[in-house]
Each structure stands twice: as C-alpha cells, then as structure tokens.
Write a structure and sequence with these properties.
Layout (H helix, E strand, L loop, with lengths): L3 H13 L5 H24 L13 H6 L5 E7 L2 E8 L4 E7 L8 E8 L5 E7 L6 E5 L9 E8 L12 E4 L2
Antiparallel strand pairs: 1-2, 2-3, 3-6, 4-5, 4-7, 7-8
Length: 171
C-alpha cells in the first residue's frame, strides 16, 4: 500500500514522544486548590482588623496608661472612687464603682481645685445601671492641685452648692 510507510513512521515518532500524563494536570489543579484554601483560611482566621498591638488607645486609656499617671483612691458611701491624672497628657479620669444614684433631680459633679482652692468645673458623672462610671474629665488637669465630687442640681452648677463627698489632693 502506497503511503503506508509514512503512516508507520508517524506512529513510530508518536510512540517516542513523551506522553503528557494526566497526573501533571491533576497535581497542578490540586496545588492551586490548596493555595486557595490557605488564602481563604488565612483571611477567615486572621481578618483584616487591628489587633491589640496596633489599636489606637482611647483618651481614657492614654491617661490611665501614661508613664506619669498618678492614682488616687478613696472610699465614698460604700463605693470606691479613683482619680487618675497625667500631667503630661493634661487630663484626668474618674472611675466610680458602686456609687449610689444621686438623689432625685440631682447629679454628681466633678471639680478641679486650683492652687488657691477655687473649684473649676470638670464634668458631670453620668448615671449608670451597674453603678460603675468612667469619665474623662474636662479641662486642664496638669495645673490642678486637687479634685472633688459634689451633689448638684440636675444639669450641674457653676459653683459647688454642697460640701464635697470626697476630695483628692494631687500634691
């Protein structure tokens, strides 16, 4: 048969050529699938939210964690009141735990005291169902010589109208 030798030669060459194995293709697909699983698993396990080491500190945390933070703690009517002051931050924080509700129509007001003992408004303590309040105080705590808490009419006062429940000396 004419041309039969060419067909045999073509078949021979095909026989010598390395065959593409289905194993290579399967290995590539398996590798790609494994990579995809790792990426998706990594995103699920470690979402793109900041961890504690990169989280921005709140103003309260900046004051309470400042290297120069001074802590003053006193009992008040069965509660514990803590003032934390940082001169470098120029701010102070008050933390009241177990503080009873003020009388109806009244609030607790916090004051700074200057060098002459003159009171300066520093904030109103919000009511709390669990009787625990943390408040970043207003004003410059760096120059304050002390702080105190009074009971004032709702909305607060320009000057204390009652004797302080507690005072803190920053000296």
């Amino acid at each position: 048969l004419p041309g039969r030798g060419a067909a045999d030669e073509l078949a021979t060459r095909r026989g010598r050529r390395p065959q593409k194995s289905p194993g290579r293709w399967a290995a590539w697909v398996a590798g790609a699938a494994a990579a995809l699983v790792l990426v998706v698993g990594g995103l699920t396990w470690h979402p793109w939210s900041p961890d504690q080491s990169t989280r921005q500190l709140t103003a309260v945390e900046q004051v309470t964690r400042a290297p120069d933070a001074q802590r003053f703690v006193k009992p008040v009517e069965g509660a514990t009141v803590t003032v934390v002051r940082s001169s470098s931050k120029g701010r102070a924080v008050i933390v009241a735990k177990g503080m009873p509700e003020p009388p109806a129509g009244h609030v607790y007001e916090v004051w700074y005291f200057d060098a002459s003992g003159h009171p300066v408004k520093a904030g109103l303590m919000p009511r709390s169902d669990d009787h625990e309040v943390t408040l970043l105080l207003d004003g410059d705590a760096a120059d304050a010589h002390g702080a105190g808490v009074t009971v004032e009419p709702a909305g607060g006062s320009d000057q204390p109208t009652t004797k302080p429940l507690v005072t803190f000396d920053f000296a």
